[in-house]
Amino acid sequence: MAIEGMVRHPLVHRLYVDHQGWLNGWLRRQLGCSQKAADLAQDTFVRVLSKDHGLESIREPRAYLHTIAKGLLINHWRRKQIEQAYLDTLALQPEAVMPSPESQALIVETLMQVDVMLTRLPYRVRRAFLLSQLHGLTYAAIAAELDVSERMVKKYMAQAMLHCLLLAEDEP
User: Fold this and answer.
1) What is the pLDDT of residues 40-72, one digit of tens each?
2) What are 109-142's pLDDT values in tens digits?
3) What are the CB-based long-range contacts (under 8 Å, 24+) for 53-59?
4) Structural domain boundaries of the chain?
5) Which PANTHER family match (predicted)?
């Protein structure tokens, strides 16, 4: 069902009627794919529908829609990068250990969640966490890399771990 049939709020309806074509065209130019552009345009209006308050104060509707769509576009590109990195890693594995397509989809979804979690961390905290967890560096080596004390690295790691625990509690 097209989003147009779901729009009951007159301001959202007007926004959709006046700007959906423009938004779809802009996204199509960014993506080079009309189907994905249509999907992201629809997702943009779904986001507008979910806000449904304060719409009266929108002075520049195209800028408003552009901001929402740009965020969705960045998420789309980030997901593509993560999927490609995962597929590149899978290609190096023997076929016998290849996960099913369903498992692959779940793994990519989990990787997306980890990526979101990491991007919410301050830069130095994220860097310390990644140096520790992915590269296996000691706190002393991380301290040298980041040009901070070991005590600061411990604080960074505690902050990262707390962040992980808080996110785990939020999961259903």
Assistant:
1) 999 999 988 887 677 778 889 999 999 999 999
2) 888 888 888 888 999 999 999 999 989 999 999 9
3) 55/9, 55/11, 55/12, 55/15, 56/11, 58/11, 58/15
4) 1-92, 101-169
5) RNA POLYMERASE ECF-TYPE SIGMA FACTO (PTHR43133), RNA POLYMERASE SIGMA FACTOR FECI-RELATED (PTHR43133:SF63)
Give the Cβ contact number of residue 136 at 10 Å: 8
Q: d(Cα 118, Cα 2) in Å, to the nearest integer?
A: 35
**CATH architecture of the region 101-169:** Orthogonal Bundle (1.10)
**CA-CA distance, 61 to 153, in Å (whole number)?**
45
Q: How far is CA 47 from CA 23, 77, 140, in A?
A: 14, 18, 45
Give the start-end residues of each E strand in the chain. none
Q: What is the pLDDT of residue 11?
A: 80
Q: Which 3 state secondary structure label does DSSP give 59?
A: coil
